[in-house]
Amino acid sequence: MTPVDWCSKLQTTVETATFGSEHVAARTATEPILDLRLTPRYLEVPLHGPRFMFGENESVVDTASVPHSKLHKRHNALSCHRTREAIAAGITGFHHIVGTAKPAGVLSKHWGHSSIWETLRPLMFW
């Protein structure tokens, strides 16, 4: 009974490190959440609590979630602040998830059946 939005697309910027790439991905995920919250509010549908985002890079999740963390590269800071603003407003919650437990990893990586079955089974037999 909960709407889920999932997308996969090519990033429009090139990053030299995973840290910057994960911040861009978090910002890219935050923007549709803001849009998806706005439409029900126009229809006067009450919304309770934050929407959830999950990331497997723990340092990116911590940097975006902790208000006093500091970034030195401006382009990373811009993406981080957009995500951090939504977290501070209570619109989103950004949580760390282990890479092997991430359902999207089933679609993006090559796995052996036995190593991914516990993650895949709830998706197949809901």
SSE sequence, one letter per element? HEHHEHH
Shape designation = globular
Query: Which runs of at least 5 residues are low in confidence (pLDDT < 50)?
Result: none
Whole-number average pLDDT? 79
Task: Calculate Rg over CA atoms.
Answer: 16 Å
- Give the tally of β-strands: 2
- Strand fraction band? 5-15%
Number of DSSP helical runs: 5
Structural class from helices and strands?
mainly alpha
User: What strand line-up does the widest sheet have?
Assistant: 1-2
Largest sheet: 2 strands, parallel
Range of helix content: 40-55%
Distance between the termini: 13 Å
SSE arrangement:
Layout: H1 18-42, E1 51-55, H2 58-65, H3 74-88, E2 92-96, H4 104-108, H5 113-124
Parallel strand pairs: 1-2
Helix pairs in contact: 1-3, 2-3
Structure notes:
This protein is mostly helical and 126 residues long. It has a domain at 18-98. The chain has helices at residues 18-42, 58-65, 74-88, 104-108, 113-124, and strands at 51-55, 92-96. A two-stranded parallel ribbon has the order 1-2. It is globular, with a radius of gyration of 16 Å. The mean pLDDT is 79.
Keywords:
126 residues; mainly alpha; 8% strand
Gist of the model:
It contains five helices and two strands. Strands 1-2 form a two-stranded parallel ribbon. The longest helix has 25 residues, at 18-42.
